[in-house]
Design a protein that fits this description.
By secondary structure, this protein is α+β, with helices and mostly antiparallel strands. It has one domain. It is built from two helices and three strands. It has a three-stranded antiparallel β-sheet with strand order 1-2-3, covered by helices on one side. Bound molecules: zinc ion. Zinc ion binds next to loops.
Length: 115
């Protein structure tokens, strides 16, 4: 049976996705937020009437896993690493979504070539 050019092209793209997935580093779902807080200490800089300077930034990562929401604070020096993990997670989702789409197209090509 002759394999169509289109089918070969789809298979090549799927192979590329598998390679990209294998190279994917640490990942983490969710998003990172940054916040500045006001404390309860009287006369603190965060309550200066002229030039209030709040405390922070404090980083918090929030995510949903298996239907459960979680969040935790991230030390400032780890914020960059967490951002990279969040980006990897988005990449994972993008790659799997693309893989599913290609698989559906491949299934259609196979049906048409055997019909
Ligand atoms: Zn304060």
């Amino acid at each position: 049976m002759k394999t169509s050019i289109r089918r070969q092209n789809i298979e090549r793209q799927i192979a590329q996705i598998k390679e990209d997935l294998a190279r994917l580093g640490s990942l983490h779902p969710g998003s990172l937020s940054r916040q500045y807080n006001v404390c309860g200490k009287p006369g603190c800089r965060c309550k200066n009437p002229k030039n209030p300077r709040r405390h922070g930034p404090y980083y918090k990562v929030s995510y949903v896993y298996r239907g459960r929401f979680s969040s935790r604070f991230v030390p400032r020096d780890q914020a960059k690493a967490v951002r990279a993990e969040l980006a990897n997670y988005k990449r994972l989702r993008g790659l799997t979504e693309k893989w599913v789409g290609l698989s559906l197209r491949l299934a259609k090509e196979k049906r048409q070539s055997t019909a």
